[in-house]
Specification:
Strands 1-8-3-6 form a four-stranded antiparallel β-sheet. A four-stranded antiparallel β-sheet has the order 2-7-4-5. The protein is built from five helices and eight strands; from the N terminus they run ααβββββαβββαα. The model has no long low-confidence stretch (mean pLDDT 86). It has one domain: Sandwich (Jelly Rolls). 38% of the residues lie in helices and 25% in strands. By secondary structure, it is α+β, with helices and mostly antiparallel strands. Helix 4 packs across helix 5. The protein is globular and about 60 Å long.
């Protein structure tokens, strides 16, 4: 079982009461990965919401020619130091409940908290205060991702403009 002290320090749970955090403990698990290991692959069933506890994780799109992914196919990076980047795997809330990207450990080691999506969805339906707090935070996460994507598009357009001179 995951310790209360671990999750109470996470930014996503900073507005939670102790009683609300205790409801989450039974649906959480910790996993450790080494650099280069795959957390999940694009099109896998989205069974969990993920939170970076330590280290770094990159979300990458898979190339159609089945070549191994590299940091060149990275769409977003997730670090414990950037609160809005800690949470990923929110495909577990959106039909068809499949991962849109693959996740890879990109630090020497990384530790992630996994929250069972089915149990989390049930908990959020039963306790709407918990549901509201999580969804409010996830909107911030989505906004952060759009900002990341906007920066990548601007960089891509800028490179294309410079190459056309």
């Amino acid at each position: 079982m995951v310790a209360l002290e671990l999750i109470e320090d996470l930014h996503i749970f900073k507005h939670f009461e102790t009683s609300e955090l205790n409801k989450l403990l039974d649906i959480c698990s910790l996993e450790d990965y080494q650099i280069g290991e795959t957390l999940f692959l694009e099109e896998d069933l989205a069974k969990d919401m993920w939170i970076v506890i330590d280290g770094s994780v990159e979300l990458r799109f898979e190339m159609p020619n089945a070549k191994p992914t590299t940091n060149e196919s990275t769409l977003s990076s997730h670090h414990k130091n950037i609160p809005e980047s800690q949470v990923f795997g929110w495909s577990c809330f959106i039909p068809p409940y499949q991962m849109r990207l693959s996740a890879y450990c990109t630090s020497r080691r990384c530790r992630v908290l996994k929250i069972d999506a089915t149990k989390l969805n049930n908990l959020m339906a039963q306790d709407t205060a918990i549901g509201f707090k999580i969804m409010r935070y996830l909107v911030q996460v989505v906004g952060y991702r759009f900002k990341q994507m906007q920066e990548e598009v601007a960089k891509f357009i800028g490179i294309n403009m410079m190459n056309s001179w």
